[in-house]
Amino acid sequence: MSANPSQIRILVVDDHPLLRQGIAGLVGDQPDMSLVAEASNGREAILQFRAHRPDVTLMDLQMPEMNGLDAIVAIRGEFPEARIIMLTTYDGDVQVLRALKAGARAYLLKNLLRKELLETIRAVHAGKKTLSPEVSYQLAEHATDDALTPAEIAVLRLIAAGNANKQIADQLSITEETVKGRVKNILSKLGANDRTHAAMIGLKRGIIEI
């Protein structure tokens, strides 16, 4: 993992060793890039970033101990100029927006790594921001949607966990009528046919997680 000054120095963060190996192989073939460190979760990522100060960090979204979003916030809190690319299997528009607000410079789907990773690293190193076309499509599709309120998200989360209206009312200390009103709003805002459909949409878009 040695680097010369002209190379883009890269930190890769992912809890799957095979994915890290694959990225190491891609990067290792590039004369202008060098992998300087690896980490398997967000906490390790912070320590490795401090130790190596990489030019570009590739950050997985879902990891044990500390997820990628929290790691980005922590790293950029110490190093505001950190250039971080979010790697994920999730293309939900809400997840993307969270990552961009946290400070990610790019959002790349793992199934496109071989096709887009190297170009994305070079673009981010050059100071640009970039999104996969699929991700851009998701953002555009929902750009004018009426967002769910925190109260509605709380209800949707409990719907996804299999709770009936009465159970939701009890858990949130609200009336059943209030729950019914929120469910109606959720279905309308998400364009969902029923409660199950709403839960599926919420999970796909990253509004809620199981």
SSE diagram, text form:
Layout: E1 8-13, H1 17-28, E2 33-39, H2 42-52, E3 56-60, H3 68-78, E4 84-88, H4 93-102, E5 106-109, H5 113-125, E6 130-131, H6 133-141, H7 150-160, H8 165-172, H9 176-190, H10 195-205
Parallel strand pairs: 1-2, 1-3, 3-4, 4-5, 5-6
Helix pairs in contact: 2-3, 7-9, 7-10, 8-9, 9-10
Write structural notes for this entry.
This protein has helices at 17-28, 42-52, 68-78, 93-102, 113-125, 133-141, 150-160, 165-172, 176-190, 195-205; strands at residues 8-13, 33-39, 56-60, 84-88, 106-109, 130-131. The longest helix has 15 residues, at 176-190. It is built from ten helices and six strands; from the N terminus they run βαβαβαβαβαβααααα. The model has no long low-confidence stretch (mean pLDDT 89). Helix 2 runs parallel beside helix 3 (68-78), helix 7 (150-160) packs across helix 9 and helix 8 (165-172) crosses helix 9. The two termini are 37 Å apart. Strands 2-1-3-4-5-6 form a six-stranded parallel β-sheet, sandwiched between helices. The chain is of the alpha/beta class and 210 residues long. It is elongated, with a radius of gyration of 20 Å.
